[in-house]
Amino acid sequence: MDVSVAGIRSVGKSPLQAVVRLLRDAILRGEFAPDTKVRIEDLRARYGTSLGTVREALSCLLAEGLVVEEGQKGFRIASMSVADITDIMTTRSVLESHALTYSMQHTSVDWEAGVVASLHLLNRIERDSAAFGEWLAANRAFHLALCSGCPSPRLRDFLVSLFHQSQRYGHRLLSRGVVPRHLSDEHDQIVRAVLAGDVDLAVSCLKSHIEQVKGELVEIAALSPTPRDPPE
Questions:
Q1: Alpha-carbon Rg of the chain, whole angstroms?
Q2: Bridge partners of 69?
Q3: Secondary structure of residue 37 in the 3-state scheme
Q4: DSSP at 72
Q5: Beta strands, E only, 113-213
């Protein structure tokens, strides 16, 4: 896949959209250490764009919770901690449960088909433990498919932001050589309840699943101190 600014622009994206995507992906992969200063000039050179475009991209990622602003000092990569991932996953549990409930209340054949298709892809990828990066993307797509029938665009957008924030911890799991637990049974249980139209059971399975994942990511966060900038 072409991940250059030129490659992204070739499919109709603006320079700003291209830099936002590339920088977001780099942060999620852990290419920029948490809690370190963002060097705007380095990003300008890295992506071959203007300082203004880099600053706009950082403002977009500020809204997504991936960077933080330090007054007149510029931006830092958002920190990672036990408290942070606990808050992310707890909020996800509440909002994702609401979104799934709304989706089931507005169910359609197309929505159910999308959920089943996303589960099938996730299960296929999960069989290959080496494809962890693909698994993270497919797992996110599965959960977003569960919520895609929710009629509230704001709720759906906020869930996308929460997934981006939690995905940083997932990539850190990968960097330590840890393969995720076998999750297909839990995902299957959620989808079976969805297809049966049992809202209470589907939500219960989803909450239990998120709680299990939260415990694993909390363990990773506890073992992962976030360094500050080295002395200049």
A1: 19
A2: 75
A3: strand
A4: G
A5: none
